[in-house]
Amino acid sequence: MTTVEGPVLQARGRCWTFGDNIPTDRLVKTKYVVEPMSVIVAHVLEDLNPRFPLEVQPGDIVVAGKHFGQSSGRAIAVKALKATGIGCVVADTFARTFYRNAFEVGLPVLELPGVSELVSDGDVLAVDVAAGTFRNEATGQERTVAPPDAFLLEMLRAGGLIPLAKKRTDLFDPAT
Amino acid sequence: MNMVEKILARASGRQSVEPGDVVVAEVDLLIMHDLSGWLTSRVFDKQVGGPVRHPERVAMVFDHHYSPPTEDAADMLKANREWARRNGIQLFDCGNGNIHHTVVRRGLVRPGAIVVGSDSHTPVHGALGAFAAALGNDSHAGTVLPYGKAWFRVPETVRVELVGTPPPGTTARDVALWLVGQIGEGGLIYAAVEFAGPYVKELPFWDRWLFPLLCVDLGAKCSFVEPDEVTEEFVRSLPPGAADRPAHSDGGEAARVLRFDVGGVAPQVACPPTVGNLADVSALAGTPVQYAELGGHAGGRLEDFRAAAEVLQGRRVHPDVRFNVVPSSREVFTEAVREGLVLALHEAGATWFPPSTGSNQAYNMGAMAAGESMISTHARNFPGRNGSAEANMYLAAARTVAASAVTGTITDAGELA
Q1: Keywords for this entry (chain B) (predicted)?
Q2: ipTM of the prediction
């Protein structure tokens, strides 16, 4: 399994669909939280689709309904999804802790209300997070939304908050 | 500006802020429990390193464990202790209580402060007039520990005004659960939710607590009750802590106002699989439960033990039910001892557990087999958090939990013979 590193803000791949209000507890179950990432990633989302951790390919796209990633704010849930190598997550709406964590760990995500109605599992999608564009290549449907805040895009391009904070001492450590 | 905007402006060195602004603000308190502390310390040591800028502003509370049940758990707690000692961080070890109750009871949370933590219920500290938000491990490891700062997008404010007086058997916990059903999970994503109106104003502090607690289920970033004489009196009862810097709204308009009349709210149960899946207790009556528990972020309060003792007076826990009671802090246990509640619940058949977060995620207790059910004061009911994904967690008020422990089925306390 390969991991996409760095600032890739465009993705093209087959999509895996999930429903509304998926909690982080079901992305990474409690019993795996303290395991090594190689173990965690083998079980990510398995309760909701046992094929997902086995068959997900680098560049694939996860599409979810409303309030994706609710419940526990564990960043490990986002890191596990990122470790599958997926290109991005698109959802009708995100839970805010999941959304924040996604940018902080460098996983591109796009909030696109109504997206869950536009896709069927397995459709090939093309998404550009920085441009806010979405295209379902199976149906030809296209959508454009306002892209994420400029600060969040800067964070994604830096590879996450930790590398950004080291670079942007003007923001986080102005005394030095 | 309102309370949240004033706190964020002060802490980021600005005259004013507006919703949508991204600011970097000085953090007054970072709280972590045994699990999030472990994850955060690993990220910090591996990817950041260096000294912790303000160790006196960081607290770790072991609340998922009151005593490690496995060698792996003991290893984790030992590593946490060593990390806390090495970095000069305040540690509240096993047996102190639930993370949020413990830091409040020890005087670490003050009005006007910025409080952050990985636990998603961290916004509860808005009950004291703090700006409190849940951030991820990378915020804590990447900016809060090394620089004492965090980034925030200033949220828009939604005021939820509650009017009316509920029927006698309905408690604040029922009203809070009912609101999640009314507003809907994810109904107020990214908002700062202000709880206001005469119903909220009349509530004592530990009942107000239950409202900011639920804002995470609404998708909100933070929540608050405007500090008033109830807040001031509560803060005076706490040990001296850092200076209070209360911030008061100066009439800024909320982006939206939602009004609810709580006059007709019946006792509630949140049914699996999510917190927003509400029903009147009467609709669930007769559903068998094998476990009942008072504990967790939303329970284990003195108010819960009093309510249970009242329901259990002259009654006993059903032989098919394990009724577990978990104080939210050592302080609460002391008060329960003094009020005779410990003996009353013990003699009625309940089992006392050490101060902790109880069955939250079933680290130390509270795992269920497939087909088993629990009714509790906990904050979460997602499948798989308590053992089998085929087990059921029902969330309710202490009165309903105690009444269900008596009959062995979900029961409205008002219907007990």
Answers
A1: Iron, Iron-sulfur, Lyase, Metal-binding
A2: 0.90
